[in-house]
Amino acid sequence: MDTAPAGQWESNLRERLVQWRERRGWTQTDLARELRNRYGLPFHQQTVQRVESGVRPVRLNEAYAIAQLFELELGELTESHGTPRAVKLAIQNGLSNLSQLAEEVVEKVSSVALAAERVYHSAGDEWFAYVERQERAGEQVDPELKREWTEFEQLWEGANEAWSHNSIKGLAD
């Protein structure tokens, strides 16, 4: 547990608030708007400026809302850097966020793979119908079309291999 004095916790919170706000690319006005819209806090740009500068203390409900907004545990905003608890909280939060992002990647890759499979089968149906028609008519397959089909098929195989690769499937595990 962090043994810093209570005043240090608030100082840590102010410092982390600025860091997380800037990581998001938000202005003080953006942060105030998010806190107002999502949590009903009566924040304006001036409120954020006063909190960040230490002129205005942060209330407990505001600190919790700020932590939720940045998807953090409150301790991550208040703990001193480099303490075992701060490291543990950062790792736990990182694992949670990475797991969620991995699930999103797998979901998106699966969706794209299904769409690509439909494209491949549609083109394949046309190709094989064309080849069958040419054979029935006793005619040669157009060499340019055959080259394009081969190129298309190679691209499909490479893409299919990429998104079915175990490292992508294992991301969310």
Overview of this protein structure:
With 173 residues, the chain is mainly alpha-helical. It has two domains: 6-81, Orthogonal Bundle (434 Repressor (Amino-terminal Domain)), CATH 1.10.260.40; 101-172. The chain has eight helices and no strands. Helix 6 packs antiparallel against helix 7 (143-163). The longest helix has 53 residues, at 84-136. The radius of gyration is 28 Å and the shape is elongated. 11% of the residues are buried.
Gyration radius (Cα, Å) is 28 Å
Give the percentage of residues in beta strands: under 5%
Helix and strand composition category = mainly alpha
Number of strands: 0
Helicity level, as a percent range?
A: over 70%
In CATH, what is the homologous superfamily of the largest domain?
Answer: lambda repressor-like DNA-binding domains
Order of helices and strands: HHHHHHHH
User: At the first level of CATH, what is the class of the largest domain?
Assistant: Mainly Alpha
State the low-pLDDT regions, or none: none
**Whole-number mean pLDDT:** 88
CATH architecture of the largest domain: Orthogonal Bundle
Query: What count of structural domains?
Result: 2
* Through-space gap between termini: 31 Å
Highlighted features:
mainly alpha; 2 domains; elongated; 173 residues; 434 Repressor (Amino-terminal Domain)
Question: What is the fold's blueprint, element by element?
Answer:
Elements: H1 6-23, H2 28-39, H3 45-53, H4 60-69, H5 74-78, H6 84-136, H7 143-163, H8 166-169
